[in-house]
From TrEMBL:
SUPFAM superfamilies: HAD-like. It holds the Pfam family Hydrolase. Belongs to the HAD-like hydrolase superfamily. CbbY/CbbZ/Gph/YieH family. This is Beta-phosphoglucomutase. It comes from Ligilactobacillus ruminis.
Length: 222
């Protein structure tokens, strides 16, 4: 393993609750919808615009708004979200992640971020982790969101590595699919049933380690 390509939301910090709160506020205030709790999981790893499209489809509102109005609604949600994540500090880094980054760096593993979030640089700065990564792939520059491989391929390319030399790290079904489609080894956090496509699944980020990543990568290349 020469590189580790990280998802952000749900892997480095838990922003899903803030995304869901912001979408719920938009849905209630602007769309007249009560968003079911299942959307918190369903929208993990899904881009901002596609998330809104799914919410509009849920409310049978897909034909109600012009593309410009849809864009304005997405921006409004992002405003609520930015206000919420302004409170993030290093205390919001998920368990084991700071240690994992140290271990990987000590073994010369290159680190990059492959998040669907356009707010990834802002969030990493808030967490005090921005300087730890060698690259952050820009989701605005890739053609297709997760589960397409594009953002993970961009993450590997940004650190000059072949995807097969990299482990991708995810918490979402769409994200694990993207890692596998990119030809990388997938280490995931969450439910083994839901994330069955991954090469290894652990229950919490505290279980991540250099050894887990390296042995999973080696097994996948036997
Ligand atoms: P933004 P990840 C994803 O991040 C989130 O899981 C998803 O819920 C969100 O809609 C998406 O980022 C876009 O985020 O609105 O900040 O650009 O899990 O790929 O790190
Ligand atoms: Mg995620």
């Amino acid at each position: 393993m020469k590189g580790a390509i990280f998802d952000l939301d749900g892997v480095i910090t838990d922003t899903a609750k803030f995304h869901f709160a912001a979408w719920s506020q938009l849905a209630a205030d602007k769309l007249g919808l009560d968003l079911p709790a299942s959307f918190e999981t369903e929208l993990k790893g899904i881009s901002r615009i596609e998330s809104l499209e799914r919410i509009l489809a849920f409310g049978h509102l897909e034909d109600k708004y012009t593309p410009a109005e849809v864009e304005a609604l997405a921006q409004e949600k992002n405003g609520y979200y930015l206000k919420a994540i302004d409170t993030l500090t290093k205390d919001d880094i998920l368990p084991g992640i700071t240690r994992l980054i140290e271990e990987l760096k000590a073994h010369g593993v290159k680190l990059s971020v492959a998040s669907a979030s356009k707010n990834a640089p802002f969030i990493l700065k808030k967490l005090g982790l921005f300087a730890e990564f060698d690259a952050i792939a820009d989701p605005a520059k890739v053609a297709h969101g997760k589960p397409a491989p594009d953002i993970f391929l961009a993450g590997a390319q940004a650190v000059g590595l072949n995807p097969s030399d990299c482990v991708g790290v995810e918490d979402a079904v769409a994200g694990v699919a993207a890692i596998k489609a990119a030809g990388m080894t997938a280490v995931a956090v969450g439910s083994p049933e839901e994330l069955s496509q991954a090469d290894a699944v652990v229950p919490t980020t505290a279980d991540f380690s250099y050894d887990l990543f390296e042995t999973t990568w080696e097994k996948a290349h036997q």
